[in-house]
Write a structure and sequence with these properties.
The complex is a heterodimer. Chain A is of the alpha/beta class. Chain A has helices at 2-23, 39-56, 76-89, 101-114, 144-148, 151-157, 171-186, 206-214, 226-238, 259-262, 282-295, 301-319, 327-335, and strands at 26-32, 59-60, 63-71, 94-98, 118-120, 137-139, 162-168, 190-197, 219-223, 247-250, 270-273, 338-341, 344-349, 354-367, 370-382. The radius of gyration of chain A is 22 Å and the shape is elongated. The chains are: A alpha/beta, B mainly alpha.
Chain lengths: 395, 295
Amino acid sequence: MRRALLAGAAVAVLSMNSAVFAADPIKIGGILATTGNDVPQGTEMTNGMRLAIEHFGPQVNGRQIQLLVEDDSSNPSVGLQKVRKLIQSDKVDMIAGVQLSAVALAVAPVVAAAKVPMIMSLASADALTGEKCSPWVFRASYSNAQIAEPFGPWVAGKGYKKVFVLGADFVTPREFAGNFRRTFEKAGGKVIAEVYSPFGKTQDFGPYLAQARSANPDAILGLYYGAEAILFTKQYESFGLKGKIPLISMLGTTPAMLRQAQGDSAEGVISSLNYIPELQTPENIAFQKAYREKFNASASEFAVMGYDSMRFAIEAAKKLNGHVEDRVALAKAISQVSFTGPRGPTRMNPANNNVDQNIYIAKTVKKGDAVIFELMDTIPNVSTDASACKMPPLQ
Amino acid sequence: MLLDPYFFAEQILNSLQFSMLLFLLAIGLSVVFGLMDYLNLAHGTIYMFAAYVAFTITQLGGSFWAALALAPFVAAAVGLLLYFLLLKRVERSGHLAQVLLTVGIIYMGTDLMRIAYGDLPKGVAQPEVLNGAVNLFGILYPSYRLFLIGLGLVVMIALYFALERTRLGALVRAGVDDRATAETLGIDIGKVFALVFAIGTYLAGVGGVVAAPIFGVYPGMDVTIIILVLIVVVVGGLGSLKGAILGSLLIGFADTFGKILLPQFAMMMIYLVMALVLTFRPTGLLPARRFSTSG
């Protein structure tokens, strides 16, 4: 009798545990900009993340996936506070959306110490999967080197030998320019000058454009984002440079979300990107359709990176059948995720925890009333040099 | 590079264009501060609001010119409404109360625009006729920016005549110089205030509309511009037209040439100019008599 009671109690306790387990959501945090200069990208990333939960969730083995988004206002110290809140009071299992490199660099030690895997949806500074790599930090977006390096030889190969660089003064444009310069000059090109304007504070690019023009380059490499990208392309056109000196760029300067404001000034720009909405693959066509149905807009590279970063998280959780409490297994699982997504073949590279992907060279062209991307070239399966990363052991 | 005369001339035009935009906003802020002793930081909010109204007008099919004709009036109407409903209450409560109130209005205004229009920056197309560039002595300069310079000059001249040659202008100058005495002379300063405020906000609205095609329309444009305008007013001197003109020219040139000489530290040039001016002339270069330290 006593044994039966004991057995019964054991069964009851065990089933209570799994009942509790089944109800316990998988909490995934996100640190994105919902205020400040970077809101358009932040909003697209969040949209992508929510769409991924719909497509690949909304639950894993009975556990509901719960997304908690916190605002970092594009500020590292605010981002740090919010990450601490997500880890300590919200008790998130993973973080799957980090936008700003400065925020990511600040929070990387915190997530490593707390053993909470972080999958960045942008944060492209090279160091994050270079000298500062960590078994707890993953990047589903791209590294600045990954986008810029293949572009150098491509640009030189097209006959543009002298390039003038104009960019906003923060880490992304500088790393883009630096990586581009290295491979471009090796391929026989020459970067005449690199001029950077105060980030987020410049409204009038007239003086900078005039400087670039007077140096007589074959092409101008323009590295601006958000509101600055709109002003830059519009002023590029109004100063008569459009059509006279080709404008080349990297992803983020002429994304779909800025087209209404940029108008025709966005036309004719050749960029190196990891994604364009116009890719004609079945996965991308389905993705664009679903995004448009839900958000009534075309999805740019930012939406797809949010989507993929959440997908990495969910696929890893699925590998563990929802048992994400084993953080070491979770981190290992993330590093092994690979799929064919809207970007093409997308795979986490365990050597530096950066994503391996195709790089696309595309030109913006006018089709009817709208400006869209036209694919010029695909550089398949580009990874990032892992030599700077000395990955500490996962434990 | 500076020695290249074409480059130099182009930068002068760039400076002038920026100065004109700053002037359109500075004159309203400066005279309101000079006449009413009212520090209205929400001046930039009117500028932003007019830009959004212009965007809406163009979205509904109106032309840029329609927007330029209508939006500043809408902005002025909203400005007057704000004045009578809110701003007037702290007219005599000192600058701190005015700053607190108007900064609150800034926050509210920015978020209202964000709710109504979203966070993505919007564009207003330049009018077709001004779309090209003009060949001026060998420089290819955008026609639209030349239009801005022309507009600024017209406004400057019109204001000069209004202030110096009309009775209303005399009333305004009297009120700025010595409000108390003006009132004892039977001048209804209240009505003069309202009119000056309306004109000031109208000009800010014009600034918002003409700036939109170049600088875009986005929540936060109010803060960006008000900082520059405050510097212009402080440097130029409070309450005077000449001060606003000189201040906007100085800051426009400092900003443009700062960008060429020290691209990363362009902002520093403006602050440097401000620091230098304030060191030697704490009340600005050409303040109205009431504010100058000499008598």
